[in-house]
Amino acid sequence: MARDESRLDKRLFTVNERILLHLKESGSASQTVDIPAPMTQDGIANALGILVNHVSRAAKTLQKQGFIREATARVKGEIRRRKIYLITAEGMAVANNIYGKIGETLVSVRDSRQRLQELPAGEARKLLLPPRTYTAMLAALDERNVLDVFKAKAKKKEAEAVSHIIGAPAEAPIHGRADELKKIRSWLQLKKPPVMVITGTKGIGKTVLALQAVVSLEGRRPVFWFSIKPATTADRLAGALSDFLRELGKVEFTIEERDGIEELGMKLEASLIDLGALFVIDGLLGELEDVGDVAYALVEAAAATGNQILVTARTMPHWGRGMKGLQLLEELQLRGLDRDSCRRIAPQLDEQEFGKAYRLARGNPLEIKLLSEYADEEISGEGLTAEERALMRYLKAVHESDVR
Protein backbone atom coordinates (compact mmCIF):
# COMPACT_ATOMS: atom_id res chain seq x y z
CA MET A 1 0.00 0.00 0.00
CA ALA A 2 1.36 3.41 -0.94
CA ARG A 3 2.39 5.64 1.94
CA ASP A 4 0.96 9.14 2.34
CA GLU A 5 4.05 11.35 2.05
CA SER A 6 2.09 14.35 3.34
CA ARG A 7 2.17 12.73 6.79
CA LEU A 8 5.35 12.16 8.77
CA ASP A 9 6.49 8.53 8.79
CA LYS A 10 9.93 7.60 10.15
CA ARG A 11 9.98 4.58 7.82
CA LEU A 12 10.35 6.94 4.87
CA PHE A 13 13.90 7.73 6.04
CA THR A 14 16.84 5.36 6.25
CA VAL A 15 19.22 5.26 9.21
CA ASN A 16 21.86 6.91 7.02
CA GLU A 17 19.51 9.78 6.19
CA ARG A 18 18.52 10.24 9.82
CA ILE A 19 22.19 10.38 10.84
CA LEU A 20 22.82 13.15 8.29
CA LEU A 21 19.76 15.04 9.53
CA HIS A 22 20.95 14.65 13.12
CA LEU A 23 24.46 15.92 12.35
CA LYS A 24 23.01 18.94 10.54
CA GLU A 25 20.76 19.78 13.49
CA SER A 26 23.63 19.29 15.97
CA GLY A 27 25.81 21.89 14.25
CA SER A 28 28.29 19.29 13.04
CA ALA A 29 29.46 21.46 10.15
CA SER A 30 30.99 24.03 12.52
CA GLN A 31 34.42 23.53 14.06
CA THR A 32 34.32 24.49 17.75
CA VAL A 33 36.65 23.90 20.69
CA ASP A 34 33.99 22.00 22.63
CA ILE A 35 32.16 19.58 20.33
CA PRO A 36 28.57 18.70 21.31
CA ALA A 37 28.20 15.13 22.65
CA PRO A 38 25.53 14.25 20.00
CA MET A 39 28.32 14.01 17.39
CA THR A 40 29.81 10.90 19.04
CA GLN A 41 28.69 7.36 18.15
CA ASP A 42 26.72 6.88 21.37
CA GLY A 43 25.35 10.43 21.10
CA ILE A 44 24.00 9.65 17.62
CA ALA A 45 22.58 6.32 18.82
CA ASN A 46 20.80 7.99 21.74
CA ALA A 47 19.38 10.72 19.52
CA LEU A 48 18.04 8.28 16.92
CA GLY A 49 16.96 5.61 19.39
CA ILE A 50 19.05 2.87 17.74
CA LEU A 51 22.00 0.64 18.73
CA VAL A 52 25.57 1.93 18.60
CA ASN A 53 26.69 -0.86 16.23
CA HIS A 54 24.02 0.28 13.75
CA VAL A 55 25.53 3.76 13.88
CA SER A 56 29.01 2.32 13.30
CA ARG A 57 27.91 0.42 10.17
CA ALA A 58 25.98 3.36 8.74
CA ALA A 59 28.88 5.75 9.43
CA LYS A 60 31.27 3.60 7.37
CA THR A 61 28.90 3.80 4.39
CA LEU A 62 28.43 7.56 4.79
CA GLN A 63 32.21 8.06 4.96
CA LYS A 64 32.70 6.10 1.73
CA GLN A 65 30.05 8.27 0.08
CA GLY A 66 31.88 11.40 1.25
CA PHE A 67 28.91 12.63 3.31
CA ILE A 68 30.66 12.61 6.70
CA ARG A 69 34.21 12.49 8.00
CA GLU A 70 35.71 11.15 11.21
CA ALA A 71 37.70 13.27 13.68
CA THR A 72 38.87 13.27 17.31
CA ALA A 73 38.02 16.18 19.57
CA ARG A 74 37.33 17.31 23.12
CA VAL A 75 33.61 16.77 23.67
CA LYS A 76 31.66 19.41 25.57
CA GLY A 77 30.93 18.30 29.11
CA GLU A 78 33.48 15.47 29.10
CA ILE A 79 37.11 15.05 30.06
CA ARG A 80 38.36 12.65 27.41
CA ARG A 81 38.87 13.33 23.72
CA ARG A 82 36.39 11.27 21.71
CA LYS A 83 35.82 10.08 18.16
CA ILE A 84 33.22 12.29 16.47
CA TYR A 85 31.59 12.65 13.05
CA LEU A 86 31.43 15.87 11.04
CA ILE A 87 29.11 16.39 8.08
CA THR A 88 30.64 17.46 4.75
CA ALA A 89 29.21 19.91 2.21
CA GLU A 90 27.88 16.99 0.16
CA GLY A 91 26.27 15.46 3.24
CA MET A 92 24.77 18.82 4.20
CA ALA A 93 23.04 19.04 0.80
CA VAL A 94 21.35 15.68 1.43
CA ALA A 95 20.44 16.68 4.99
CA ASN A 96 18.90 19.96 3.82
CA ASN A 97 16.71 18.04 1.39
CA ILE A 98 15.50 15.71 4.18
CA TYR A 99 14.91 18.70 6.46
CA GLY A 100 12.75 20.35 3.79
CA LYS A 101 10.69 17.21 3.18
CA ILE A 102 9.89 16.82 6.89
CA GLY A 103 8.91 20.47 7.16
CA GLU A 104 6.21 19.94 4.52
CA THR A 105 4.50 17.09 6.42
CA LEU A 106 1.75 16.86 9.04
CA VAL A 107 2.15 15.06 12.37
CA SER A 108 -0.42 13.37 14.58
CA VAL A 109 0.16 14.70 18.08
CA ARG A 110 -1.25 13.31 21.35
CA ASP A 111 -1.16 15.69 24.29
CA SER A 112 -1.20 15.00 28.05
CA ARG A 113 -5.01 14.68 27.95
CA GLN A 114 -4.76 11.99 25.26
CA ARG A 115 -6.27 14.27 22.63
CA LEU A 116 -5.13 13.83 19.02
CA GLN A 117 -4.58 16.70 16.63
CA GLU A 118 -2.85 17.23 13.30
CA LEU A 119 -0.07 19.80 13.28
CA PRO A 120 2.59 20.87 10.76
CA ALA A 121 5.92 19.26 11.66
CA GLY A 122 7.48 22.62 12.46
CA GLU A 123 4.75 23.38 15.02
CA ALA A 124 4.81 19.88 16.54
CA ARG A 125 8.57 20.13 17.07
CA LYS A 126 8.10 23.14 19.38
CA LEU A 127 6.16 20.95 21.85
CA LEU A 128 9.23 18.82 22.65
CA LEU A 129 11.83 19.48 25.33
CA PRO A 130 15.16 20.84 24.00
CA PRO A 131 16.70 20.01 21.65
CA ARG A 132 13.55 20.65 19.59
CA THR A 133 14.80 18.91 16.45
CA TYR A 134 13.25 16.83 13.70
CA THR A 135 15.65 14.08 14.74
CA ALA A 136 14.13 14.02 18.24
CA MET A 137 10.64 14.09 16.77
CA LEU A 138 11.32 11.10 14.48
CA ALA A 139 12.75 9.14 17.42
CA ALA A 140 9.67 9.93 19.56
CA LEU A 141 7.11 8.69 16.99
CA ASP A 142 5.36 5.47 18.06
CA GLU A 143 4.57 2.48 15.82
CA ARG A 144 1.55 4.36 14.42
CA ASN A 145 3.66 7.49 13.78
CA VAL A 146 1.90 9.40 16.54
CA LEU A 147 3.91 11.90 18.58
CA ASP A 148 2.95 11.45 22.25
CA VAL A 149 4.34 14.69 23.71
CA PHE A 150 3.79 13.69 27.35
CA LYS A 151 5.64 10.38 27.01
CA ALA A 152 8.44 11.95 24.97
CA LYS A 153 9.11 14.54 27.68
CA ALA A 154 9.00 11.97 30.49
CA LYS A 155 11.42 9.66 28.66
CA LYS A 156 13.89 12.45 27.98
CA LYS A 157 13.93 13.62 31.59
CA GLU A 158 14.49 10.08 32.87
CA ALA A 159 17.37 9.35 30.51
CA GLU A 160 19.09 12.70 30.82
CA ALA A 161 22.36 12.99 32.72
CA VAL A 162 23.80 16.44 32.13
CA SER A 163 27.48 17.27 32.53
CA HIS A 164 28.49 20.92 32.81
CA ILE A 165 32.29 21.20 32.83
CA ILE A 166 33.98 24.60 33.08
CA GLY A 167 37.74 24.97 33.28
CA ALA A 168 38.68 21.33 33.87
CA PRO A 169 42.06 20.30 32.45
CA ALA A 170 42.47 17.31 30.16
CA GLU A 171 42.53 13.97 31.95
CA ALA A 172 46.09 13.11 33.00
CA PRO A 173 47.77 9.86 34.09
CA ILE A 174 47.61 9.26 37.81
CA HIS A 175 50.57 7.79 39.69
CA GLY A 176 50.11 6.05 43.01
CA ARG A 177 47.19 7.27 45.13
CA ALA A 178 45.54 3.83 45.30
CA ASP A 179 44.29 4.44 48.86
CA GLU A 180 43.04 7.93 48.02
CA LEU A 181 41.21 6.69 44.92
CA LYS A 182 39.58 3.96 47.00
CA LYS A 183 38.33 6.56 49.48
CA ILE A 184 36.85 8.74 46.73
CA ARG A 185 35.11 5.79 45.07
CA SER A 186 33.71 4.65 48.40
CA TRP A 187 32.46 8.17 49.11
CA LEU A 188 30.78 8.38 45.70
CA GLN A 189 29.06 5.05 46.25
CA LEU A 190 27.94 5.60 49.84
CA LYS A 191 26.97 9.25 49.17
CA LYS A 192 27.85 10.25 52.72
CA PRO A 193 28.96 12.47 54.16
CA PRO A 194 27.67 14.81 51.45
CA VAL A 195 30.84 16.94 51.30
CA MET A 196 34.43 15.94 50.63
CA VAL A 197 37.33 18.42 50.63
CA ILE A 198 40.67 17.42 49.10
CA THR A 199 43.48 19.53 50.55
CA GLY A 200 47.20 19.78 49.82
CA THR A 201 49.92 21.99 48.40
CA LYS A 202 49.94 23.18 44.79
CA GLY A 203 50.80 20.41 42.36
CA ILE A 204 50.18 17.59 44.84
CA GLY A 205 47.43 16.07 42.65
CA LYS A 206 44.10 17.39 44.00
CA THR A 207 42.59 18.15 40.58
CA VAL A 208 43.77 14.85 39.06
CA LEU A 209 41.96 12.94 41.82
CA ALA A 210 38.80 15.04 41.41
CA LEU A 211 38.83 14.27 37.68
CA GLN A 212 38.70 10.57 38.50
CA ALA A 213 35.42 11.15 40.32
CA VAL A 214 33.94 12.95 37.31
CA VAL A 215 35.13 10.37 34.77
CA SER A 216 33.64 7.54 36.82
CA LEU A 217 30.21 9.22 36.83
CA GLU A 218 29.99 10.51 33.24
CA GLY A 219 26.59 9.70 31.78
CA ARG A 220 25.30 8.17 35.04
CA ARG A 221 24.57 11.24 37.16
CA PRO A 222 24.38 14.97 36.51
CA VAL A 223 27.85 16.49 37.04
CA PHE A 224 28.81 20.15 37.54
CA TRP A 225 32.50 21.11 37.48
CA PHE A 226 33.82 24.63 37.97
CA SER A 227 37.52 25.50 38.22
CA ILE A 228 38.23 28.73 40.10
CA LYS A 229 40.99 30.99 38.76
CA PRO A 230 42.42 34.20 40.29
CA ALA A 231 40.20 36.29 37.96
CA THR A 232 37.00 34.31 38.64
CA THR A 233 34.03 36.38 39.82
CA ALA A 234 31.10 35.35 42.00
CA ASP A 235 28.72 36.26 39.15
CA ARG A 236 30.48 33.84 36.81
CA LEU A 237 30.15 30.93 39.25
CA ALA A 238 26.51 31.77 39.98
CA GLY A 239 25.80 32.10 36.25
CA ALA A 240 27.36 28.71 35.53
CA LEU A 241 25.17 27.13 38.21
CA SER A 242 22.13 28.76 36.62
CA ASP A 243 23.05 27.38 33.17
CA PHE A 244 23.54 23.89 34.62
CA LEU A 245 20.18 23.88 36.37
CA ARG A 246 18.41 25.12 33.24
CA GLU A 247 19.93 22.23 31.29
CA LEU A 248 18.33 19.93 33.85
CA GLY A 249 14.95 21.55 33.28
CA LYS A 250 15.04 23.68 36.45
CA VAL A 251 13.65 26.69 34.62
CA GLU A 252 12.30 28.15 37.85
CA PHE A 253 15.87 28.82 39.07
CA THR A 254 16.70 32.45 38.27
CA ILE A 255 19.30 34.80 39.72
CA GLU A 256 18.51 38.45 40.16
CA GLU A 257 21.02 41.26 40.64
CA ARG A 258 19.70 42.12 44.10
CA ASP A 259 20.05 38.52 45.36
CA GLY A 260 22.42 38.16 48.29
CA ILE A 261 24.12 34.95 49.42
CA GLU A 262 21.19 34.01 51.64
CA GLU A 263 18.68 34.39 48.79
CA LEU A 264 20.96 32.46 46.44
CA GLY A 265 21.29 29.65 48.99
CA MET A 266 17.51 29.34 49.40
CA LYS A 267 16.98 29.27 45.63
CA LEU A 268 19.68 26.65 45.20
CA GLU A 269 18.24 24.47 47.93
CA ALA A 270 14.78 24.60 46.33
CA SER A 271 16.22 23.61 42.93
CA LEU A 272 18.60 20.83 44.04
CA ILE A 273 16.01 18.58 45.69
CA ASP A 274 16.07 15.02 44.24
CA LEU A 275 18.71 15.99 41.68
CA GLY A 276 21.29 13.35 42.71
CA ALA A 277 24.14 15.40 41.21
CA LEU A 278 27.86 15.68 41.87
CA PHE A 279 29.18 19.23 42.17
CA VAL A 280 32.92 19.90 41.96
CA ILE A 281 34.48 23.22 42.95
CA ASP A 282 38.13 22.96 41.94
CA GLY A 283 40.81 25.27 43.34
CA LEU A 284 38.85 27.18 45.98
CA LEU A 285 40.89 30.28 46.81
CA GLY A 286 40.55 31.84 50.24
CA GLU A 287 41.37 35.32 48.98
CA LEU A 288 38.34 35.38 46.64
CA GLU A 289 35.77 35.96 49.36
CA ASP A 290 32.77 36.65 47.09
CA VAL A 291 33.43 33.49 45.08
CA GLY A 292 33.92 31.58 48.33
CA ASP A 293 30.54 32.78 49.58
CA VAL A 294 28.78 31.45 46.47
CA ALA A 295 30.71 28.18 46.77
CA TYR A 296 29.64 27.84 50.41
CA ALA A 297 26.01 28.54 49.49
CA LEU A 298 26.28 25.67 47.00
CA VAL A 299 27.95 23.41 49.59
CA GLU A 300 25.18 24.00 52.13
CA ALA A 301 22.40 23.58 49.55
CA ALA A 302 23.91 20.41 48.08
CA ALA A 303 24.49 18.89 51.51
CA ALA A 304 20.90 19.60 52.55
CA THR A 305 19.28 18.10 49.46
CA GLY A 306 20.95 14.70 48.98
CA ASN A 307 23.56 15.78 46.45
CA GLN A 308 27.33 15.41 46.76
CA ILE A 309 29.92 18.15 46.50
CA LEU A 310 33.68 17.76 46.10
CA VAL A 311 35.96 20.74 46.82
CA THR A 312 39.69 21.03 46.20
CA ALA A 313 41.69 23.66 48.11
CA ARG A 314 45.19 24.13 49.46
CA THR A 315 43.84 24.40 53.01
CA MET A 316 40.51 23.62 54.62
CA PRO A 317 37.98 26.45 54.04
CA HIS A 318 36.91 28.39 57.13
CA TRP A 319 33.51 26.66 57.16
CA GLY A 320 35.00 23.16 56.93
CA ARG A 321 35.72 22.60 60.61
CA GLY A 322 32.11 23.18 61.63
CA MET A 323 30.74 20.85 58.93
CA LYS A 324 33.33 18.24 59.86
CA GLY A 325 32.18 18.39 63.49
CA LEU A 326 28.61 17.75 62.34
CA GLN A 327 29.82 14.75 60.31
CA LEU A 328 28.76 16.43 57.06
CA LEU A 329 32.28 16.63 55.66
CA GLU A 330 35.19 14.29 55.04
CA GLU A 331 38.68 15.70 54.48
CA LEU A 332 41.18 13.95 52.24
CA GLN A 333 44.65 15.36 52.89
CA LEU A 334 47.18 14.66 50.14
CA ARG A 335 50.82 14.12 51.04
CA GLY A 336 53.79 13.60 48.74
CA LEU A 337 53.92 10.51 46.54
CA ASP A 338 56.06 7.52 47.40
CA ARG A 339 59.46 7.17 45.70
CA ASP A 340 58.36 4.52 43.16
CA SER A 341 55.40 6.61 41.97
CA CYS A 342 57.61 9.67 41.57
CA ARG A 343 60.16 7.61 39.65
CA ARG A 344 57.50 6.88 37.02
CA ILE A 345 57.04 10.63 36.54
CA ALA A 346 60.72 11.23 35.81
CA PRO A 347 62.14 8.02 34.28
CA GLN A 348 64.70 9.96 32.23
CA LEU A 349 66.67 11.13 35.30
CA ASP A 350 69.62 9.06 36.41
CA GLU A 351 69.37 7.62 39.91
CA GLN A 352 71.55 10.27 41.53
CA GLU A 353 69.68 13.19 39.96
CA PHE A 354 66.36 11.61 40.79
CA GLY A 355 67.36 11.09 44.42
CA LYS A 356 68.15 14.81 44.75
CA ALA A 357 64.90 15.80 43.01
CA TYR A 358 62.82 13.52 45.22
CA ARG A 359 64.34 14.86 48.45
CA LEU A 360 63.88 18.50 47.42
CA ALA A 361 60.33 18.08 46.10
CA ARG A 362 59.24 15.88 49.03
CA GLY A 363 57.17 13.76 46.70
CA ASN A 364 55.26 16.62 45.05
CA PRO A 365 54.50 15.25 41.53
CA LEU A 366 54.41 18.67 39.84
CA GLU A 367 57.78 19.64 41.32
CA ILE A 368 59.28 16.30 40.27
CA LYS A 369 58.05 16.90 36.73
CA LEU A 370 59.47 20.43 36.67
CA LEU A 371 62.82 19.33 38.05
CA SER A 372 63.08 16.64 35.39
CA GLU A 373 62.51 19.31 32.73
CA TYR A 374 65.24 21.52 34.27
CA ALA A 375 67.70 18.64 34.74
CA ASP A 376 69.92 19.60 31.79
CA GLU A 377 69.96 23.32 32.53
CA GLU A 378 73.36 24.70 33.52
CA ILE A 379 73.56 26.53 36.85
CA SER A 380 76.29 29.19 37.02
CA GLY A 381 78.33 29.71 40.17
CA GLU A 382 81.86 28.65 41.00
CA GLY A 383 82.60 26.50 44.00
CA LEU A 384 79.08 25.07 44.28
CA THR A 385 78.73 21.44 45.29
CA ALA A 386 76.48 19.04 43.39
CA GLU A 387 73.89 19.33 46.18
CA GLU A 388 74.02 23.13 46.03
CA ARG A 389 73.58 23.09 42.24
CA ALA A 390 70.60 20.77 42.61
CA LEU A 391 69.08 23.14 45.17
CA MET A 392 69.65 26.13 42.85
CA ARG A 393 67.97 24.23 40.00
CA TYR A 394 65.05 23.37 42.27
CA LEU A 395 64.58 26.98 43.40
CA LYS A 396 64.71 28.17 39.79
CA ALA A 397 62.13 25.61 38.68
CA VAL A 398 59.59 26.28 41.43
CA HIS A 399 60.05 30.07 41.23
CA GLU A 400 59.56 30.32 37.47
CA SER A 401 56.57 28.00 37.61
CA ASP A 402 55.04 29.61 40.73
CA VAL A 403 54.59 26.28 42.47
CA ARG A 404 55.13 27.59 46.00
> Remind me, CATH topology of the largest domain?
Rossmann fold
The main β sheet shows up as:
6 strands, parallel
Compute the separation of the termini in Å.
77 Å
From the alpha carbons, calculate the radius of gyration and give it in angstroms: 26 Å
- Residues in helices, as a percent range: 40-55%
Low-confidence stretches: none
User: What would the average pLDDT be, to the nearest integer?
Assistant: 82
* Percentage beta strand: 5-15%
> How do the strands line up in the largest sheet?
6-8-9-10-7-11
CATH superfamily of the largest domain: P-loop containing nucleotide triphosphate hydrolases
Order of helices and strands: HHHEEHEEHHEHEHEHEHHEHEHEHHHH
Give me the number of helical elements.
Answer: 17
Top-tier CATH class of the largest domain: Alpha Beta
| CATH architectural designation of the largest domain | 3-Layer(aba) Sandwich
Structural class designation:
alpha/beta
* Overall domain count: 3
| Assembly state | single chain
Record field, number of beta strands: 11
Outline of the structure:
The protein has 17 helices and eleven strands. With 404 residues, it is of the alpha/beta class.
